[in-house]
């Protein structure tokens, strides 16, 4: 099985071209699943969240392709990572794949994909998703050894994740916005179990403070209330009931905020 997570958008021909390459190369019967092609354009932070929470639900041994690649055509490496669980991750070396790799038990082996070995046509400087990542994914999903079209890479040389580790002190959390969903809910980089929140907290953004209730479900609060709760991915989430927390707080992906209690 091959999963695809990109920022190509649904109105472009790019997802179809990637799938066409996979179908040309992969062994018969390899399934292709679209996670999403609507990661915000060039937003590596948001893409890393989507992959890290969606892809672990697929069967072990799946191949996960991530293409959010503002550095395409530059010196940034194309990489293939083997995770402890047996999955393979394919994409640019810009931190996009690292949170998913950690969710899958860590990196067992890392490779640099050799552009002149992975496919038999000229590689476009602007579309590595089609010309590098798709053939690499198809070949490894078909059981081919990565050594046939890659060279070994020290995992320590990989670009670090695009989201920082949160700072959790007694009653004070320094966090980042990892993702904003279509409802305007803010998913932070803080795991819910890392904090012991009281009934009310203060959220501080750019010097402005907001009071929020700590709840377990949206239905515990009234329309328009600012709340904090456990997200479905077990992160600390900030939401406005029937509204947009991102709009109220004026934040977007990668912005920093503080939670005090």
Automatic annotation (TrEMBL):
Transmembrane intervals: none
Domain S-adenosyl-l-methionine hydroxide adenosyltransferase C-terminal, chain residue ranges per copy: 176-257
Cross-referenced InterPro entries: SAM_HAT_C, SAM_HAT_N, SAM_OH_AdoTrfase, SAM_OH_AdoTrfase_C_sf, SAM_OH_AdoTrfase_N_sf
This protein's record includes keyword Signal: no
SUPFAM superfamilies: Bacterial fluorinating enzyme, C-terminal domain, Bacterial fluorinating enzyme, N-terminal domain
Family from the record: Belongs to the SAM hydrolase / SAM-dependent halogenase family.
Protein name, entry field: Uncharacterized conserved protein
The organism of origin for this protein: Methanopyrus kandleri (strain AV19 / DSM 6324 / JCM 9639 / NBRC 100938)
């Amino acid at each position: 099985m091959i999963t695809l997570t990109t920022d190509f958008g649904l109105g472009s021909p790019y997802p179809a071209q990637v799938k066409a390459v996979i179908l040309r190369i992969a062994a018969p019967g390899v399934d292709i699943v679209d996670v999403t092609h609507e990661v915000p354009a060039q937003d590596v932070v948001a893409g890393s969240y989507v992959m890290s929470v969606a892809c672990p639900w697929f069967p072990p041994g799946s191949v996960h392709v991530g293409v959010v690649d503002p550095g395409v055509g530059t010196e940034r490496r194309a990489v293939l990572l083997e995770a402890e669980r047996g999955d393979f991750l394919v994409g640019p070396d810009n931190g996009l794949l690292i949170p998913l790799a950690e969710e899958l038990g860590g990196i067992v082996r890392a490779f640099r994909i050799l552009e002149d070995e992975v496919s038999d046509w000229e590689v476009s400087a602007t579309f590595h998703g089609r010309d590098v990542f798709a053939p690499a994914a198809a070949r490894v999903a078909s059981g081919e050894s990565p050594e046939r079209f890659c060279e070994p890479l020290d995992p320590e040389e990989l670009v670090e994740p695009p989201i920082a580790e949160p700072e959790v002190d007694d009653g004070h959390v320094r966090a980042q916005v990892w993702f904003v969903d279509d409802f305007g809910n803010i998913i932070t980089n803080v795991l819910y179990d890392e904090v012991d929140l009281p009934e009310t907290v203060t959220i501080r953004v750019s010097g402005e403070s907001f009071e929020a209730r700590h709840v377990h479900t949206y239905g515990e609060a009234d329309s328009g209330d600012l709340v904090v709760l456990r997200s479905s991915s077990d992160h600390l989430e900030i939401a406005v009931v029937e509204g947009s927390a991102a709009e109220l707080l004026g934040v977007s992906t990668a912005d920093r905020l503080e939670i005090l209690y």
